[in-house]
Write a structure and sequence with these properties.
Blueprint (H helix, E strand, L loop, with lengths): L2 H16 L18 H63 L8
Helix pairs in contact: 1-2
Length: 107
């Protein structure tokens, strides 16, 4: 995990311990017969860690997508350049063929 994610987790847990409704506005009720707030904080911690994991996954996939887009642009540029080179070479061959007389005796 990145340092910013760890710091975010620590601050979220601190705020969650100070304010019951910080992480989720509708806290899940404790199981019947249990009044242990530690269970609720454990669930909140799991939720926060899962959320941070999702955020890191999204950032990673965004970076991969940006790299793939850059590769695609480079390949498209190379293809266009290659097509221009082929077209230029083809037109120069056509010009040479047009300039060459068809009668082999004329040289």
């Amino acid at each position: 995990m990145k340092l910013s994610s760890v710091m975010t987790t620590a601050l979220t847990l601190l705020a969650s311990s100070c304010c019951c409704a910080f992480v989720d506005k509708h806290p899940t009720p404790a199981p019947v017969g249990e009044e242990n707030p530690a269970v609720d904080y454990g669930q909140r911690l799991n939720g926060v860690l899962q959320h941070l994991w999702y955020v890191e996954q999204i950032r990673s996939e965004q970076a991969q997508l940006a790299a793939l887009r850059a590769q695609r642009k480079a390949l498209e540029s190379a293809i266009r350049q290659r097509q221009c080179e082929v077209a230029t070479a083809s037109s120069s061959v056509d010009q040479r063929v047009a300039a060459t007389p068809l009668d082999p005796r004329v040289n």
